[in-house]
Amino acid sequence: MVASIYMPTDSTPPAPAMERLIQYCNHNKLPLIIGCDTNAHHFRWESQKCNRRGYTLSEYLATTDLEVVNQGSEPTSVLITSKRL
User: Would you say the C-alpha torsion 45, 48, 50, 51 has a positive or negative sign?
Assistant: First the structure.
């Protein structure tokens, strides 16, 4: 499964659609790749600074089997993938 998710700055991550997608893929044992524009900054995906959104999203991701696979420090969307890939 491949998805693209945008999380506007007036919402708290993770987006409900993202949570449902992750649950669906886990339940059905489907590999998952998510390209995200999260508006969240965290050292985990090589941002220079962290913000509240970044901490919240990072804490959520720690409860899943997903991992961030961004490379480098260019400002990009976050790429998240299941460990099954």
Answer: negative
Query: CB within 8 A of 72, min separation 6: which ones?
Result: 46
Q: Do the Cβ atoms of 34 and 4 come closer than 8 Å? A: yes
Residue pointed to by tokens 């999260």: 38
pLDDT digits (tens, 9 = 90+) for 60-70: 999 998 888 87
Measured over the CA atoms of residue 23, residue 38, residue 5 and residue 80, the dihedral's sign is: negative
> Total structural domains in the chain?
1
Supply the CATH number for residue 22's domain: 3.60.10.10
| End-to-end CA gap in the chain | 11
- DSSP secondary structure letter of residue 15: P
